[in-house]
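stage 2 :: seqdesign
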């Protein structure tokens, strides 16, 4: 029992000396100080920092959105340009093919004309040679006739 009385007397002394749970004006003052610091930190630090972070997040979101839109537009333009390039190549190939065919037709026509002209020249030359041949034969006949008359006269005279 002495021990219990001793502990009770010690406990009563601790309460009077400002023990572990002393409920005087310090506790509400500490609570008010904590609330004031919390409000002050909220106003001076947390709100500006959160505003900066929100602005940054919005800027990043807008940047990503505009970058995505630009990328989509670039992809569409690339597809369009590739399609137009393919069409242009096809058209160029058609133009080249048509030009080659036209050139081939012109060349074959020129060759045919040249062949006809060559045949005409050959025919004209052949006809000219025939005429010259006939003239040569006629002149030879005349000369043969003259020579045969001369031979005949000489033989008859002798």
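stage 2 :: out
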């Amino acid at each position: 029992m002495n021990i219990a009385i001793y502990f009770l007397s010690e406990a009563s002394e601790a309460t009077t000396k400002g023990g572990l749970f002393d409920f005087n004006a310090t506790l509400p003052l500490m609570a008010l100080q904590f609330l004031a610091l919390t409000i002050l930190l909220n106003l001076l630090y947390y709100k500006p920092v959160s505003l900066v972070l929100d602005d940054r997040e919005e800027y990043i979101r807008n940047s990503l959105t505009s970058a995505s839109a630009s990328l989509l537009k670039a992809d569409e333009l690339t597809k369009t340009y590739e399609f137009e390039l393919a069409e242009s190549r096809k058209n160029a190939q058609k133009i080249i093919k048509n030009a080659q065919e036209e050139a081939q037709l012109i060349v074959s026509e020129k060759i045919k004309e040249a062949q006809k002209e060559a045949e005409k020249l050959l025919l004209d030359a052949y006809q000219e040679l025939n005429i010259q041949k006939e003239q040569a034969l006629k002149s030879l006949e005349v000369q043969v006739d003259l020579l045969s008359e001369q031979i005949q006269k000489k033989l008859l005279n002798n």
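stage 3 :: structure notes
- The mean pLDDT is 87.
- DSSP finds two helices and no strands in the chain.
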